C-alpha cells in the first residue's frame, strides 16, 4: 500500500512572499491599481463632511450662493469616485489575471518537471485538481472577490480614519457595533462555512450522478435501470437543495445580526451626536457627517464578511498553486557525466516504496552494449520497479545503477533522459497534429525524418491513409487512434529520440492478439541496435531475447538463453511449460502453436 504524500502547499507567509514577488514584476500596473483604489476610497471621504457643511449653511441661514461651492464639489467628487472605482476594478482584475497567467504558466512548467516518483506518491489527481479546480477558483476570485475586497477594505479603513479625524467621540460610539460583528462572524465561520463545504460536495455528487446517468443511458435502457437512475439523480438533487436551503437560512440569520449591529452602532452615533450638539461641542453638520461615515463604512463591512468564505477558499487554492510553482526543478550536476556506451550495470540494488515493505532485494544485473534481455516473473515480482530504477524514475533505496559506466545521478536528469527511455503501455497521444506529437521526441526533425521513423516501425501505411497524413489532428477531439496505432506512435517517437538504452515495459501487452503481433515486430525494429531490457508478458517475446532474466519476489533467480534455461528445468522451464500448455489448449490467434523456440 502506498502512502499519499500530497504535493506541497505554500505556507501563508511563503504565498504572500511569492505574490509580492509576482506583483513587483508588474509594479507599474500594481502602482496604478493602488492609486485608483485609494483615490476612489479617499475621494468618497469628502462626501459626508460636504453634506454636513450644506446642513450647517442651511441651519445657519446662509444665503443660497454659499451652497454652490459644496454642491459643485459634491458632484465633482461623485463623478471622480465613479471613474476611479471603475478604473480600480478593471485594473485589479487586469493585475490579478496577469499574475494568475504567470502563476499558471509556472505551475504547468513545474508540473512537467516534477519527478515521476513524487507525482506517483501524490497521485495525479492532486496535480489535476490544482491545475483545473484551483485555477478556476483563483480566476473567479481575481475578477470578482479580490477587487470587491480591496475596495471594501480600503473604504472601511479610510472611513474609520475619517470618523476619528472628524470627531473621536463619534468614532468611539460607532465601535459599539464591533462586538456583534465579531461574534456574528465567529458563529458564521463555525456554522455556515462547513455547510458551504458540504454544499460543494453534494453538488459534486449531483453532477457525478447526472454524468453517470447521461453517459450510461444506453446501458440503463438495456437493463431497464432508467427508474433507478432517475431516483439517484432525484435524491442527490433533493439533497443539494436541502443543504443549500440550510445555508440560506443561516446566512439570513447572519445578515440579521449585521443589521442589528448597524442599528446599534448608528443609534449610538446619533445619540452621541445629539448630546455633543446639545453641549455645543460640534455642529449638526458634523454629527450628520459622523452618521453618514458610519453608514458608509457599514455596507463594505457586510461585503467583507460575506466574502470571507470565498476569500478563504481562494487563498487556499492560491497556496496550493504556489506550492506547485515553488517546487524546485531537479538539479543538474555541474559537470554531467557522459555514458561511455549502452551497457547497463545494476549493483546490489534494493528498493521499497514503503518502509518495511521491500520490493527488490539486492538485484545484480549486467546488460552488455546492444544486448537484448527479457525480464520475466510473476505479477508483483518487481519487474516494473527494476525498469523504473534503471530509467532513473526512482532512485534505488540502496545500491547503484550505471549506464555506460556512469552513475545515473552523475548523468543528471537531462543526461539520463537522453540515454535511457522507458516505454510503457500508458501511451498518451497529445491533442494536435500527428507530426507535432512525433516531434515531441525530436523537435528539429523534418518531415522526411518523421516518415523514416514511421517506416522503421511499419506505421507509415496507416499514417498515409489518414485524411491529412502527418498533418491529421489526433488525440482528444481529433482523429481517434486505436491502441495499436498509439503504441506505434510511441515506438516511432522512440526511434526519433534514438536513445542507446531502451526499457520496454508491457508496451505490447494491452493490444489484441493481431495488434500485439504487429507491435512485437514494430518493437523489434525500433529496438534494433540498442541495448534493451524488455519486460516480457508473452514468453515468445522472452524466447527471442539474447538472455532471459527471471525475477521472483524481488530477486534474480535464474538467467540464461531460452534453450539453456529450458534444459536446466528450473523456474523458466516451468513457466514455459505452463504457458505452452495454455497456448495449446487456447491458442491466442487460432493459428500458431507453441514450439520449443517460436522464432
Ligand atoms: N508506486 C508504488 N507504491 C507502492 N508500492 C508499489 C508501487 N509500485 C509498485 N508497488 C509494489 O511493488 C511490488 C512490485 O511491483 P511491480 O509493478 O514492480 O511488479 P511487476 O513484476 O512489474 O508486476 P506486474 O507484472 O503485475 O506489472 C508490488 O507489490 C507492487 O504492489
UniProtKB/TrEMBL annotation:
Membrane topology: Multi-pass membrane protein
Domain ABC transporter, first and last residues per copy: 344-578
Domain ABC transmembrane type-1: from-to ranges: 31-313
Superkingdom, natural source: Bacteria
GO cellular component: plasma membrane
Subcellular location: Cell membrane
Pfam families: ABC_membrane, ABC_tran
Gene Ontology MF: a single term: ABC-type oligopeptide transporter activity
Keyword flag Kinase: no
Keyword field: ATP-binding, Cell inner membrane, Cell membrane, Membrane, Nucleotide-binding, Transmembrane, Transmembrane helix, Transport
Transmembrane domains' residue ranges: 29-51, 71-96, 141-164, 170-189
Protein name: ABC transporter transmembrane region:ABC transporter
Amino acid at each position: 500500500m502506498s502512502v499519499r504524500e500530497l504535493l506541497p502547499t505554500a505556507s501563508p507567509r511563503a504565498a504572500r512572499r511569492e505574490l509580492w514577488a509576482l506583483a513587483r514584476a508588474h509594479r507599474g500596473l500594481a502602482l496604478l491599481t493602488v492609486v485608483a483604489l485609494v483615490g476612489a476610497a479617499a475621494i468618497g471621504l469628502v462626501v459626508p463632511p460636504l453634506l454636513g457643511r450644506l446642513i450647517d449653511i442651511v441651519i445657519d441661514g446662509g444665503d443660497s450662493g454659499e451652497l454652490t461651492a459644496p454642491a459643485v464639489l459634491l458632484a465633482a467628487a461623485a463623478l471622480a469616485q465613479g471613474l476611479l472605482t471603475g478604473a480600480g476594478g478593471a485594473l485589479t482584475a487586469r493585475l490579478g489575471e496577469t499574475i494568475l497567467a504567470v502563476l499558471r504558466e509556472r505551475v504547468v512548467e513545474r508540473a512537467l518537471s516534477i519527478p515521476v516518483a513524487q507525482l506517483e506518491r501524490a497521485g495525479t489527481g492532486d496535480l489535476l485538481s490544482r491545475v483545473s479546480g484551483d485555477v478556476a477558483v483563483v480566476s473567479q476570485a481575481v475578477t470578482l472577490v479580490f477587487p470587491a475586497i480591496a475596495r471594501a477594505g480600503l473604504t472601511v479603513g479610510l472611513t474609520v480614519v475619517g470618523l476619528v479625524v472628524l470627531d473621536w467621540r463619534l468614532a468611539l460610539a460607532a465601535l459599539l457595533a464591533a462586538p456583534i460583528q465579531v461574534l456574528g462572524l465567529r458563529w458564521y465561520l463555525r456554522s455556515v462555512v462547513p455547510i458551504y463545504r458540504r454544499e460543494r460536495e453534494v453538488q459534486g455528487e449531483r453532477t457525478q450522478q447526472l454524468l453517470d446517468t447521461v453517459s450510461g443511458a444506453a446501458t440503463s435502457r438495456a437493463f431497464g435501470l432508467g427508474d433507478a437512475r432517475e431516483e439517484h439523480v432525484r435524491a442527490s438533487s433533493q439533497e443539494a437543495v436541502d443543504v443549500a436551503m440550510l445555508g440560506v437560512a443561516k446566512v439570513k440569520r447572519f445578515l440579521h445580526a449585521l443589521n442589528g449591529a448597524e442599528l446599534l452602532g448608528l443609534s449610538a452615533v446619533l445619540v452621541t451626536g445629539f448630546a455633543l450638539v446639545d453641549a455645543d461641542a460640534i455642529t449638526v453638520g458634523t454629527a450628520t457627517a459622523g452618521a453618514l461615515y458610519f453608514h458608509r463604512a457599514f455596507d463594505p463591512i457586510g461585503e467583507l464578511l460575506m466574502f470571507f468564505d470565498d476569500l478563504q477558499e481562494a487563498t487556499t487554492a492560491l497556496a496550493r498553486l504556489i506550492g506547485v510553482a515553488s517546487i524546485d526543478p531537479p538539479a543538474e550536476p555541474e559537470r554531467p557525466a557522459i555514458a561511455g556506451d549502452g551497457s547497463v550495470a545494476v549493483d546490489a540494488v534494493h528498493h521499497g516504496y514503503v518502509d518495511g515493505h521491500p520490493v527488490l532485494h539486492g538485484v545484480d544485473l549486467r546488460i552488455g552494449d546492444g544486448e537484448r534481455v527479457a525480464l520475466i516473473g510473476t505479477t508483483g515480482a518487481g519487474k516494473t520497479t527494476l525498469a523504473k530504477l534503471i530509467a532513473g524514475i526512482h532512485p534505488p533505496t540502496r545500491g547503484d545503477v550505471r549506464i555506460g559506466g556512469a552513475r545515473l545521478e552523475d548523468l543528471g536528469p537531462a543526461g539520463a533522459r537522453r540515454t535511457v527511455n522507458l516505454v510503457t503501455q500508458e501511451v498518451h497521444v497529445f491533442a494536435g497534429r500527428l507530426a507535432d506529437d512525433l516531434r515531441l521526441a525530436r523537435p528539429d526533425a523534418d518531415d522526411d525524418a518523421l516518415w523514416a521513423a514511421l517506416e522503421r516501425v511499419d506505421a507509415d501505411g496507416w499514417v498515409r491513409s489518414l485524411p491529412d497524413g502527418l498533418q491529421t489532428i489526433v488525440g482528444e477531439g481529433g482523429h481517434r487512434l486505436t491502441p495499436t496505432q498509439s503504441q506505434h506512435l510511441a515506438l516511432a517517437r522512440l526511434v526519433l529520440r534514438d536513445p542507446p538504452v531502451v526499457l520496454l515495459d508491457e508496451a505490447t501487452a494491452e493490444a489484441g492478439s493481431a495488434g500485439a503481433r504487429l507491435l512485437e515486430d514494430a518493437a523489434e525494429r525500433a529496438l534494433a541496435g540498442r541495448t534493451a531490457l524488455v519486460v516480457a508478458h508473452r514468453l515468445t517475446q522472452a524466447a527471442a531475447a539474447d538472455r532471459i532474466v527471471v525475477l521472483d519476489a524481488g530477486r534474480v533467480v535464474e538467467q540464461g538463453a531460452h534453450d539453456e534455461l529450458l534444459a536446466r528445468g528450473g523456474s523458466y522451464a516451468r513457466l514455459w511449460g505452463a504457458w505452452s500448455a495454455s497456448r495449446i489448449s487456447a491458442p491466442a490467434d487460432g493459428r500458431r502453436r507453441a514450439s520449443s523456440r517460436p522464432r
